[in-house]
Amino acid sequence: QKEVEQNSGPLSVPEGAIASLNCTYSDRGSQSFFWYRQYSGKSPELIMFIYSNGDKEDGRFTAQLNKASQYVSLLIRDSQPSDSATYLCAPETGANNLFFGTGTRLTVIP
Amino acid sequence: GAVVSQHPSWVICKSGTSVKIECRSLDFQATTMFWYRQFPKQSLMLMATSNEGSKATYEQGVEKDKFLINHASLTLSTLTVTSAHPEDSSFYICSAKSRGLRYNEQFFGPGTRLTVL
User: Fold this and answer.
1) What does the pLDDT look like over A2-15, one tens digit per residue?
2) Between B47 and A3, whose confidence is greater?
3) Phi/psi at B12 (5° precision)
4) What is residue B28's predicted lDDT score, i.e. its pLDDT?
5) Mean pLDDT value across residues A56-80
6) What DSSP string runs through chain B?
7) Contact B43/A42, CB-based, under 8 Å?
8) Residue B31 sits at the chain A interface (C-beta within 8 Å)
9) Of B43, B103, B108, the CB nearest to A45
10) pLDDT number for residue B101
């Protein structure tokens, strides 16, 4: 049974702060991990993905992966009100599909 | 690049009718398209995976005779909800994987909100 766990939140951070979003997964076979952002009533949009242990940076976003601990995280630096959304963690399964967590709702307070 | 469209964006129908939803990859060829369903405050649940020219693979618990999927070309997949009932009311989202991408990113369409009266 595949599981992806995320703190549902809401996670509230002040504007300009760092938001830290965490995700643990159960499928040790997962090799790639995707972070999506979903605004209320909209479909998900890809933020970034990571496949190697360590950090991967893309603008204000940094993904961190630790396969031994089955843990992946997303850091958002200089958080903006427009970052307020639900963030979905999605490991890739052995069937080349994505298995989505329930997401963490982030609120950035101006 | 990597734009996926869906049509219609919303639909209201009477119980017992069928509804067709189209998913198109506009600027790339999609080797695989996925259909998800999302109920309020829940995560995306994969319904089925379709590859161009072959039958769709349905996830456990999804009725293939109720949710008909056709993937006729590398840019178009359709989902038909047959004999829709109020419990089928949901947000249906398709995604597509581009041929040639190494890491299997999926790009999502804007979704179709289905309301069955």
Assistant:
1) 789 998 889 999 99
2) B47
3) -120, 130
4) 85
5) 96
6) ---EEEE-SEEEE-TT--EEEEEEESSS-EEEEEEEEE-TTS--EEEEEEETTSPPEEPTT--TTTEEEEEEETTEEEEEE-S--GGG-EEEEEEEEETT-SS--EEE---EEEEE-
7) no
8) no
9) B108
10) 65
